[in-house]
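Input structure tokens:
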């Protein structure tokens, strides 16, 4: 909902309470459709210096593409700081870290049930046109969502012939499918040109996640032999969750021609 309301595209949760130096933690770490990281901080009341500077520090440390700070309202001086930061960030192109300030608002229309929305207060210029209230989705976003739907419509029947893991999941317009049991999540992600399959280990206890991951990695040679290909082992050095991934090369993404992608 945050990605939709702010017009920044699909965001998927990657980790919560991400540990960082100094004994503090980032509220949420999210991924966009390109796999880039987004740092998200949220708080009650008015945004304060602590949450804004903490989010920026974590974004630098975790090499995030952008920061979102959510509060009930934002002070004028913080809006000015965000605008100035974004002006500098744009000069760095894709390497610059963008800052989004958002408020969460509750509302009711007539006798309808209460609803809520995230509303953008400050953001980089390249997003401002698309983030006005009730802004229409861009043609590029619609095209990506239609391509995602076509991908999952073709993928899931083939996957279901091999495993029952995803059988409760239907086609969708988002960038990934996910099924979970306890601390374990099995996920498939699709990007523009590539695709990724991963096992996510994300229980409440970060140390226990690493312990499980370490035991599995000690058998990595046998696991990779059974799987039939090398795997990427990510031990959550900068986040709570651990991952075991298989990355497909070019030619497996939502932009790939369906005939070429089938193999």
């Amino acid at each position: 909902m945050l990605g939709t309301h702010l017009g920044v595209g699909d965001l998927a949760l990657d980790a919560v309470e991400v540990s960082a130096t100094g004994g503090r933690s980032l509220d949420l770490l999210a991924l966009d459709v390109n796999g880039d990281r987004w740092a998200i901080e949220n708080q009650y009341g008015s945004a304060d210096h602590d949450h804004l500077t903490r989010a920026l520090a974590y974004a630098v440390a975790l090499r995030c593409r952008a920061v979102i700070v959510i509060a009930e309202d934002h002070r004028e001086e913080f809006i000015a700081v965000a605008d100035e930061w974004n002006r500098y960030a744009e000069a760095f192109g894709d390497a610059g870290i963008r800052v989004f300030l958002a408020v969460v608002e509750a509302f009711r229309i007539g006798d309808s049930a209460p609803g809520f929305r995230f509303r953008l207060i400050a953001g980089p210029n390249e997003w401002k046109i698309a983030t006005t209230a009730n802004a229409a989705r861009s043609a590029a976003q619609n095209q990506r969502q239609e391509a995602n739907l076509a991908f999952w419509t073709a993928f899931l029947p083939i996957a279901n012939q091999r495993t029952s893991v995803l059988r409760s999941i239907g086609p969708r317009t988002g960038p990934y499918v996910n099924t979970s049991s306890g601390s374990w999540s099995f996920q498939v992600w699709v990007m523009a040109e590539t695709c990724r399959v991963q096992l996510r280990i994300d229980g409440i206890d970060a140390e226990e996640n690493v312990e499980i991951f370490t035991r599995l990695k000690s058998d990595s040679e046998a696991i990779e032999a059974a799987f039939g290909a090398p795997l990427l082992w990510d031990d959550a050095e900068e986040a709570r969750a651990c991952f075991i991934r298989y990355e497909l090369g070019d030619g497996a993404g939502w932009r790939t021609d369906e005939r070429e992608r089938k193999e």
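The chain has two domains: 2-131, 139-261. The chain has eight helices and eleven strands.
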